[in-house]
Design goal:
Blueprint: H1 2-33, E1 39-45, E2 48-55, E3 72-73, H2 80-91, H3 117-121, E4 138-139, H4 140-148, H5 166-179, H6 183-192, E5 201-202, E6 229-230, E7 236-238, H7 240-251, H8 258-264, E8 281-285, E9 288-298, E10 301-308, E11 313-319, H9 326-342
């Protein structure tokens, strides 16, 4: 009888764990059936997989089901990589976040003399949005050429906020200049390999030259996205497992220092609504990061990575059909897991 009493709490935990998994699956399966989810979901709790599931199809042909091995484009979540690379170089004393862009890139107009690396990180540089439609199959060289021909900024650096891909793009060029290698090579050598992001890649172009284990974006009409792009600096693809590994290592100060990560969690000190940091939306309390959420989208790709540090809860949702709802899905999954834990 004494042994049974000792086993009872463990049995209750096991039963609760099974109920959690089933309830999460039922919720996500219903979202799939309603046409609101086509992608992969991973939930980690206390360093263990609480739930992992794939819903829907690899592409609009609906001939192949998704599995956890498939990669999805990350959208704006890719911006974490150039930001982290900058801080790695800063920690080595190879640059300072207060440096001007012209300190490292000498072939840009005069505005580069007054734009700092910090302003690039915090989207307060005054740079305009990338002219995606101004080039057929836009490349990294096209983006840089446009910046070389940019005569004036949208506002005086440090006085406003404009969420633009030109900011992380220039960060990649600064990394190249300081590190003496391409940004692609740097990421492979200093981020992907040492931190075991084995399934994360930077594609040369979209449509992808190699579609192996690639989830292809498609709309409600089942047609694949038709845009063309050859800007490798923005074409990051990953799996739910790799993104969970990334955010857990990053938020545990294993990739960059606590000071560097807290710096990257900060937004520009200007008046603007919905300001983003290089890490998306972060909550810092008493000098410690307690929450990290980053949303990204690109065509019919939509993704979110989110982590509650104190609860040791990580949720990754990667989709190849953009329903504009992954943040809502993540919030509902968070609430469910935390409520279930409180009932144990």
């Amino acid at each position: 009888m004494g042994s049974l009493k000792k086993l009872l709490p463990l049995l209750l935990i096991i039963l609760s764990f099974g109920c959690q998994q089933q309830t999460i699956h039922t919720f996500l399966e219903n979202e799939f059936k309603k046409g609101r989810l086509n992608g992969n979901v991973l939930i980690l709790k206390n360093d263990s997989i609480l739930f992992e599931g794939s819903y829907g199809f690899v592409d609009g042909s609906k001939s192949t089901n998704l599995t956890s091995d498939y990669r999805f484009n990350l959208g704006s979540i890719y911006k974490e990589f150039p930001a982290v690379a900058i801080m790695q170089l800063s920690e080595k004393g190879l640059l300072d976040v207060n440096d001007n862009v012209s300190d490292h890139l000498a072939d840009l107009p005069e505005w580069s003399d007054k734009v700092t690396i910090t302003q690039l990180l915090q989207y307060s540089s005054g740079l305009p949005k990338v002219d995606w439609g101004g080039h057929k199959n836009i490349s990294d060289d096209d983006i840089y050429s446009d910046l070389q021909n940019l005569e004036k900024l949208e506002f005086e650096p440090g006085t406003g906020y404009l969420y633009t891909n030109n900011s992380p793009f220039l960060l990649t060029r600064i990394v190249q200049s300081v590190a003496g290698m391409s940004f692609y090579e740097y990421v492979q050598k200093e981020i992907f390999t040492p931190y075991d992001l084995d399934a994360t890649i930077m594609s040369e172009s979209y449509p992808f030259p190699d579609t192996s284990l690639m989830a292809i974006p498609f709309g409600k009409d089942l047609q694949s996205d038709g845009f063309e792009i050859s800007a490798r600096s923005v074409l990051f693809q990953s799996t739910t497992a790799d993104m969970a590994h990334w955010i857990r290592q990053l938020d545990s100060y294993k990739i960059i220092s606590r000071e560097s990560l807290i710096f990257l969690s900060q937004t520009a000190n200007v008046r603007a609504g919905n300001k983003q940091s290089p890490l998306g939306e972060c909550v810092v309390e008493n000098g410690e990061l307690v929450e990290h959420t980053h949303h990204g989208s690109s065509g019919n790709y939509e993704a979110v990575i989110t982590r509650l540090i104190d609860e040791d809860l990580t949720i990754i949702i990667l989709t190849n059909q953009n329903n504009g709802n992954v943040l809502d899905l993540a919030d509902k999954l968070k609430a469910f897991v935390l409520q279930s834990d409180s009932n144990l």
